[in-house]
Amino acid sequence: MTTIKASCPGCGDVELTPVQVQLVVCTVKSWSYYGFTCPQCQEGVRKPAGSDIVALLISGGVTAEPWTIPAEALEQHDGPALNYDDVLDFALWLGSAELVAAAAGALRPRRVATAPESAL
Ligand SMILES: [Zn+2]
After folding, report:
1. Residue 10 Cα to ligand 1 middle (Å)
2. Percent of the chain having pLDDT more than 90?
3. Rounded to the nearest whole angstrom, what is the distance from the C-alpha of residue 92 to the centroid of ligand 1?
4. Under 8 Å between Cβ of 44 and 59
5. How far apart are CA 120 and CA 115, in angstroms?
């Protein structure tokens, strides 16, 4: 069986089997990591996994777990962040709003729909 050598911050070099290593490969490459529970001190260890480490661990028999970051989590936002008062105002507004979908639709630019002539 393949032995994977890793380093624990407290114990130094340790030897692991592939099933003892968790490899998470993220769509944002710099967020990929591998982790393990140190067999000597039982502490959890997590370290970044660059593409070379990902390839090495996979070749050693470690199963990669995909981690997909939703695109909206990576969006850049301008303006001030929402604060607690904003959330309270919204909650109060929701309590009095009767047509929430209509109000949300009013915020979008309107598109003029045209029906094909055969549908008339
Ligand atoms: Zn350790």
Report:
1. 5
2. 68
3. 51
4. no
5. 7
